[in-house]
Design brief:
Layout (H helix, E strand, L loop, with lengths): L1 H10 L9 H14 L1 H29 L2 H4 L4 H34 L6 H10 L1 H39 L3 H25 L3 H7 L4 H12 L3 H26 L5 H35 L3 H4 L5
Helix pairs in contact: 2-12, 3-5, 3-12, 5-6, 5-7, 5-12, 7-8, 7-10, 8-11, 9-10, 11-12
Length: about 300
C-alpha cells in the first residue's frame, strides 16, 4: 500500500507534456544518495579497465614522442591500444549503464536493488546495447563525414575565387561555419537519442527501434534536455579541472589515478541515473504511465 501511494504521488504532479529539468536533477541526486555505495561500486569496476587503458595509451604515446621510444613503439602498437580503449569504453560503459538503470528504477519504486538482478538485466540486454552503441557511433560519424565532404566541396568550389581575390578570411569563416554545424548536428542527435539506452533496456528494443522510441519521447522537450545535458557536461568539466588542480601539487601518479577513477565512477553513475529518471518522467508526461507500469518488465 505504501509503495502504491508513493508511486501514485510521483506521477500525480505531471500533466500532459510536462517535463521539468529541476525535478529530474533533484530526483537523480536523491537516487544517487540512497544507492551511492552500490552504483559507485558498479561505476568503479566499469571504469577501472577504461582508466588503465587510457593511462597506458597516454604513456606509450608520450614514450613514442621521445627519441628513445621512437624506434621501439610503432604506430600499430598505439593503434591497437587506442582500439582496445574504444572497445572497453563501449562495452563497460554500456553494461554499467544498464545495471545502474535497473538499480535506479528499483530505488524510485522504493524497493531494494539487488546487484545480482541488475547484473542479469545488463547481461540480457548486452548485445542490443552493444549494437546500439555501434549504430550511434556510425550514424554520428556519417553525419560528420557528410558535413566534411560538403565543407570540402564548398571550399574547393569557392576557394579559387576567394584566393584569387585575396579573400582568405572567407575561407576560414566557411571552415568555422561547417565545424559549428557539425557540433550542432551532434548536439541535436545526442539530445534526440538521450534516453535510447533506457528504451533499449526497459522497452526491450533493438538499436533502431530504441533510437526511434527515444526521439518520440524527447520530442517537444529537446531544448530542456539539451540544456540539462550542457549543464551536466559543464559541471563535469569544472569538477574534473578542480580535481586535477588539487591533486597535481602532490605529484603522485597513483593518487591522481584514483581521483580520476573515483570521479569517473560517480559521474558515470549519476549520468545513468539522470537518463533513468528522464525516461521515467518523459513517459509519465507523455503517456501517463506510473513507475510500476514502466518497470513491470523487470518483475
Amino acid at each position: 500500500m505504501a509503495n502504491t501511494a508513493t508511486n501514485t504521488a510521483m506521477s500525480a504532479p505531471f500533466g500532459e507534456g510536462d517535463f521539468r529539468v529541476g525535478r529530474v536533477l533533484s530526483q537523480s541526486t536523491s537516487v544517487l544518495q540512497r544507492s551511492f555505495l552500490t552504483v559507485f561500486l558498479v561505476g568503479a569496476i566499469a571504469y577501472l579497465p577504461i582508466q588503465l587503458l587510457l593511462v597506458w595509451l597516454t604513456s606509450i604515446t608520450q614514450r613514442a614522442a621521445t627519441p628513445a621510444g621512437a624506434g621501439e613503439i610503432t604506430p600499430a602498437q598505439i593503434g591497437i591500444v587506442a582500439i582496445s580503449l574504444l572497445l572497453a569504453t563501449i562495452v563497460f560503459s554500456m553494461l554499467s549503464q544498464a545495471i545502474i538503470l535497473h538499480i535506479a528504477f528499483q530505488n524510485i519504486r522504493n524497493r531494494p536493488a539487488s546487484l545480482f538482478e541488475a547484473f542479469k538485466v545488463g547481461l540480457r540486454r548486452f548485445i542490443p546495447l552493444l549494437l546500439l552503441a555501434i549504430v550511434i557511433g556510425i550514424l554520428m560519424m556519417l553525419v560528420m563525414v557528410g558535413l566534411g565532404i560538403a565543407a570540402g566541396a564548398t571550399m574547393f568550389a569557392a576557394g579559387a575565387t576567394m584566393l584569387a581575390n585575396g579573400n582568405t578570411i572567407a575561407t576560414v569563416v566557411t571552415a568555422i561555419v561547417f565545424v559549428i554545424l557539425g557540433f550542432v548536428a551532434i548536439g541535436v542527435l545526442y539530445t534526440m537519442w538521450f534516453v535510447s539506452v533506457a528504451a533499449c533496456v526497459v522497452d526491450r528494443r533493438w538499436p533502431f527501434s530504441a533510437l526511434g522510441r527515444s526521439a518520440q519521447l524527447t520530442k517537444g522537450h529537446r531544448w530542456r534536455i539539451f540544456g540539462m545535458i550542457l549543464l551536466l557536461f559543464i559541471a563535469s568539466l569544472i569538477v574534473s579541472i578542480v580535481i586535477e588542480l588539487v591533486l597535481r601539487p602532490f605529484g603522485n601518479t597513483i593518487l591522481s589515478f584514483l581521483g580520476s577513477l573515483a570521479w569517473s565512477a560517480i559521474w558515470g553513475a549519476f549520468y545513468a541515473i539522470v537518463v533513468a529518471v528522464s525516461y521515467h518522467d518523459l513517459r509519465v508526461a507523455k503517456e501517463g504511465m506510473d513507475i510500476e507500469q514502466i518497470v513491470a518488465v523487470f518483475d
